[in-house]
Design a protein that fits this description.
Elements lengths: L2 H10 L20 H4 L9 H12 L7 H9 L5 H4 L1 H4 L9 H25 L18 H5 L6 H16 L4 H18 L4 H18 L3 H20 L5 H11 L5
């Protein structure tokens, strides 16, 4: 997932309360994720073969409830909706405008952390190495976007970490759902296991660096109050739907 794609997705979903900020929080202070992430696996190595094994094994999930969740998770515009059960309320620009604006700004930092290693390693997505069904169309745009690290999971885990900090009493279900959001890329067949794992590390790098920025810390203080108010006001998501989601999240797909 590229920076532009993240911003367009967020805007289309109404996640952005206003026009996107022209830059993120980190700018030139952003860590060099190429130097920090482990290298993308190379053919013939144990990690490379483990990726192939997981990809081929998870093709059996086609058509399952987990597959359907993965299809829903393809749309990064729905990240706050995806986290609604775990948080206890769906955040929108209407009930959480400051939080929404902060999330839109984070997209630039996530994009920078993802794009550079993607372009450096240029690793093919798993379905381009081994034949198998995927949960989205096999179009040229997807094929041209490298596998490692997963930008989708960098985005999802970044938001998961931020939301867990804003609502610490709900950190466990929030992070469990954020983990499942990334694992949906495995189920979908569009990312390797190593790319998903690198996405989580990538997000952790970004969030750690963000806490060194005063502007981010101030925005988090404002968002914390806003999230608390939104949770109190509700409405809470449907309990039956949330229970069904939790049951799927609790089971590892690989």
């Amino acid at each position: 997932m590229r920076t532009k794609a993240i911003l367009l997705a967020a805007a289309a979903a109404g996640l952005l309360a206003a026009a996107p900020a022209p830059h993120g929080y980190l700018g030139d202070d952003a860590p060099d994720t190429i130097a920090i992430l482990p290298p993308a696996p190379e053919a013939g190595t144990t990690r490379y073969e483990a990726d192939r094994t997981v990809y081929l094994a998870t093709r059996r999930l086609e058509g399952s409830d987990r597959w359907k969740m993965a299809q829903g998770d393809v749309d990064s515009r729905a990240i706050m909706k995806d986290l609604a059960c775990s948080l206890g309320v769906e955040l929108t620009p209407q009930n959480a405008p400051k939080t929404s604006a902060m999330i839109s700004k984070l997209a630039f930092d996530v994009g920078r952390a993802t794009n550079r290693p993607k372009d450096f390693y240029k690793r093919k997505r798993p379905y381009l190495v081994d034949e198998g069904p995927i949960c989205v169309p096999k179009d040229a745009g997807l094929a041209a976007s490298p596998d490692y690290p997963s930008g989708h999971n960098t985005w999802g885990w970044t938001i998961g970490l931020v939301m867990a900090e804003l609502a610490p009493d709900r950190a466990t279900p929030i992070l469990a759902r954020a983990r499942a959001f990334g694992e949906s890329r495995l189920v979908c067949g569009v990312h390797n296991l190593s790319a998903v794992e690198a996405g989580r590390l990538n997000a952790s790098i970004v969030v750690a660096a963000l806490h060194g920025q005063e502007a981010f810390r101030k925005d988090m203080d404002a968002a914390r109050l806003e999230v608390a108010a939104a949770r109190k006001a509700g409405p809470a998501p449907d309990p039956a739907a949330c229970a069904a989601e939790a049951a799927i999240v609790a089971k590892s797909p690989y």
